[in-house]
Amino acid sequence: MLQTQDNSFLIDCGEGTQLQLSKYKIKTGKISHIFISHLHGDHYFGLIGLLSSMSLLNRNTDLHLYGPPKLLDIINLQLDVADVNLSYTLHFHKLEEEGEIANTGKITISSFKVAHRIDCWGFLFREIKQSRSVLSEKAKSFEIPAAYFSELQKGKDYTTKKGTIISNEDVTQPAKKGRSFAYCADTLFLEHLSATVKEVDLLYHETTYLKDQEEKAASRYHSTTVQAATIAKMAKAGRLIIGHFSSKYDNVEPFLEEAKAVFENTVLAEEGTCYFL
Amino acid sequence: MLQTQDNSFLIDCGEGTQLQLSKYKIKTGKISHIFISHLHGDHYFGLIGLLSSMSLLNRNTDLHLYGPPKLLDIINLQLDVADVNLSYTLHFHKLEEEGEIANTGKITISSFKVAHRIDCWGFLFREIKQSRSVLSEKAKSFEIPAAYFSELQKGKDYTTKKGTIISNEDVTQPAKKGRSFAYCADTLFLEHLSATVKEVDLLYHETTYLKDQEEKAASRYHSTTVQAATIAKMAKAGRLIIGHFSSKYDNVEPFLEEAKAVFENTVLAEEGTCYFL
After folding, report:
1. What confidence score (pLDDT) does residue A129 get?
2. Per-residue pLDDT averaged across B179-194, rounded?
């Protein structure tokens, strides 16, 4: 879940997701958008249950769903055999091309291709850069009328009646930098992803295997610890979250050690943990 | 799960079933047959995950799956988009007519129609009546040759060389009665079901609502406590298990009280509980 002040974005939805949401007291009613990276079961088998439960709870707000085209066929078939009409409007958006797929007014979401055994997508969330904020006391001291403040927010200077130019920088302060998060789904090591997620504040990259399993990782279209950390380092990411550890490992601490050796600011994706930005 | 000495039968498979099996230490490898009563999500959304996990665990024994015809379309579509071939052979048996659908040599399984909002099936499991068992000391005392014992098991008398007839009942004892279990899925109250499940040892019947909600139950194709217990009483069942309680009830004790008032030998279906026969 990616949660902002206004939205809850669910990214992938394995079996039992609705139980996990309930366990962590996340209200499904707040989820406005769901993004499904690819159609392997561990990434979407919980979706039909979640969509059905939302309907049983009489949700009436629209839901936006993004995924590979065939996801809609699967959902429609399952609703059809159950003779169910959802209580809310489900807007399905096919993932077919890279680029912006959503814009909430405060956040833009882009999809980018990664390389997995089947068609698979990553997602980049960016807060839209806010406008400059007016230092109203200062602006008033220059006798700038409030009606002009919206122009100041855009970065414009002010010219007084006497022709004096008041520099914008004297009466505003810069917009806060928009925060960003990238989710790289399941993927082979792709060096060029570091450009796609350049300077992202928080990067999720899978690390199914430890570094000594590089060949196996490649053969299964997955990545190792060192590969994930290399993407974070090349991208100059703020922080790296690693996850999707192969179930053959009982202890995941070596994942953290290996990744940190390449990119210090790494954390493990742990169930029930919140990471703040 | 219905477990016998030789088989594990899984009856319906809601979301998270594989997690529950793991929690109760039931090995999925032992499941030989899966029966899906109908295509409402709470009865089958966990199936595709279970089938997939069995394959990831490299199962190589055949699996028999019984369900409404469209279940196969759903499974095939989901395997197809994931580009997955199962590691084992899945035999799909469409539920289309009432009658015997499986015979393991020790158990017969029959399907019967119930009445729900969509096509829905109940299942009746019966141990095949074993042959009579020979009282070997007694048989020897009559000098019956061991080669004839298989005839005795079938109930035949024995004629000695001198022409004396030894009555089968003198040298054998009756077969133990085969045990039986019926699962009535989700259904309206159907009086005629009591004939279908006549004298069953253990009967599962749904009780979504308490008795004061008879109209609501009917409108939603479900049953009440009194209705379930009435079926058990009319069928002269050995024991009744009630379940599928509506989530609007916090306390299920009244279900037990109401059912027991009609059919004393009733128990609640409780998560993780084993009922022996």
Report:
1. 80
2. 97
Helix (H, G, I), strand (E, B) or coil at B29: helix
Strand ranges across the sheet with B31-35: B2-3, B8-11, B31-35, B63-67, B90-94
Phi, psi of A15 (to 5 degrees): -55, 135
Q: Can you tell me the mean pLDDT for B6-28?
A: 96
- B217-240: per-residue pLDDT in tens? 999 999 999 999 999 999 999 999
HSE, side-chain direction, 13 A CA sphere, residue A118: 18
CA-derived radius of gyration, chain A = 23
Fold classified for B1-99: Metallo-beta-lactamase; Chain A (3.60.15)
B38-57 pLDDT tens trace: 999 999 999 999 999 999 99
CATH topology of domain A1-127: Metallo-beta-lactamase; Chain A (3.60.15)
Q: What is the pLDDT of residue B70?
A: 98
Q: Using CB atoms within 10 A of its CB, is residue A163 exposed (0-12), middle (13-18) or buried (19+)? A: exposed
Beta-carbon separation of B78 and A40 below 8 A: no
Cβ separation of A41 and B49 shorter than 8 Å? yes
A22, A81, A248, best to mutate vs chain B, most B CBs in 10 Å: A81
Give how far A39 is from chain B: nearest CA, Å.
6
Nearest-CA distance B232 → chain A (Å): 29
Element holding B4 (H helix, E strand): none
Q: How far apart are CA B52 and CA B74, in angstroms?
A: 13
Nearest to A82 among B18, B39, B73 (CB): B39
pTM of the model: 0.88
Q: How confident is the model at residue B130 (pLDDT cuts 50, 70, 90)?
A: confident
CA pair distance A217, A116, nearest whole angstrom: 11
Nearest to A45 among B48, B73, B118 (CB): B48
Nearest-angstrom CA–CA distance, A235 and A187:
16
- Find the helix or strand (DSSP H, E) in which B184 lies: none
Q: Where in chain B is the domain with CATH 3.60.15.10?
A: 1-99
Range in B49-63, B101-115, B129-143 the model is least confident about: B129-143
Using an 8 Å Cβ cutoff, are B231 and B203 in contact?
Answer: yes
Q: Which residues of chain A form CATH 3.60.15.10?
A: 1-127
